[in-house]
UniProtKB/TrEMBL annotation:
This is Acyl-CoA dehydrogenase family protein. Keywords: FAD, Flavoprotein, Oxidoreductase. Pfam families: Acyl-CoA_dh_1. Residues 131-244 form the Acyl-CoA dehydrogenase/oxidase C-terminal domain. Transmembrane segments: none annotated. It comes from [Mycobacterium] kokjensenii. It comes from the Bacteria.
């Protein structure tokens, strides 16, 4: 599928539908191969501003995964295709995202991430935005599950969606997601590293807010393995730590601004 910068809304909608169906039927190395056949490399090279938000958001919404974050990093640093560059992880650790699934990872469950002794700090701003969109997609998936449960679950003769406490949690979740999406959509020209760190931090906070509120809305079933919510919660906990978690990035940005003595204008209002 050819991607061009002047694609119209109908073409983008068709592309999104194709990607969603592909992700619904495959995951891991199989999905990576399917995305390659759909022209993922060309999409990333020719129009990253379209490809990254679209593909990574859909990874979150569908709950699947692929090692294509490697491709974003390699495209940024000019590395050879197919590589697995080390990525910083929360707590001063480093990980590699394996191209092939590995057995029994006890720390970063569900994702083929392997901890390595150390790595070299790369240009990660585009990759941080990609993970941010993945977190936002996962948050929307959790919100959809909680919303549907609130509509279906009946207590005292009425859906729990009619209760004010439930509405507040869902509304706060939506506000956090929309705020993170707005931050991710800020153009990176001028201060790309700063805007990427802030966007990744906002997405991580939104995803964790969604995890907390949606689990509360779902009640007891939200704590069980019988419901899909737990998969999204595990996923966002891992992704929040990848390339710096929300707390670390916020502190790093704050320290940099204090040292600088001023804050740049990031958005023209």
């Amino acid at each position: 599928m050819t991607v061009t910068a002047d694609m119209d809304a109908a073409s983008i909608a068709l592309l999104e539908d194709t990607l969603r169906k592909t992700m619904a039927s495959s995951s891991g190395a199989e999905l990576e191969q399917a995305l390659a056949e759909l022209g993922w490399a060309e999409m990333l090279s020719e129009d990253p501003d379209l490809a990254i938000p679209l593909v990574f958001r859909l990874l979150g919404e569908t709950g699947t995964h692929a090692s294509i974050l490697n491709d974003v990093l390699l495209e940024t640093i000019g590395g050879l295709p197919g590589g697995t560059p080390p990525m910083p992880y929360a707590g001063g650790r480093w990980v590699i995202w394996e191209r092939d699934a590995i057995e029994g990872n006890p720390v970063l469950g569900g994702l083929p991430l392997r901890e390595v002794p150390e790595g070299q700090l790369l240009r990660v701003s585009e990759a941080q935005r990609a993970v941010g969109w993945w977190l936002v997609g996962s948050a929307r998936a959790m919100l959809a599950l909680a919303r549907q449960h609130a509509l279906d679950r009946v207590q005292f003769g009425k859906p729990v969606a009619s209760f004010q406490a439930i509405r507040h949690r869902l509304a706060e979740t939506l506000a956090a997601i929309e705020g993170a999406e707005a931050t991710l959509s800020v153009p990176s020209a001028g201060s790309p590293d700063l805007t990427a760190m802030l966007a990744k931090a906002a997405a991580g906070k939104a995803a964790m807010t969604a995890a907390k509120h949606c689990q509360q809305v779902l009640g007891g079933v939200g704590f069980t393995a019988e419901h899909d919510l737990h998969r999204h919660i595990k996923r966002v906990m891992v992704l929040d730590g990848l390339l710096g978690n929300a707390r670390e990035l916020t502190r790093r940005v704050g320290g940099g601004l204090r040292a600088r003595g001023s804050a740049p204008r990031l958005v023209q209002l």
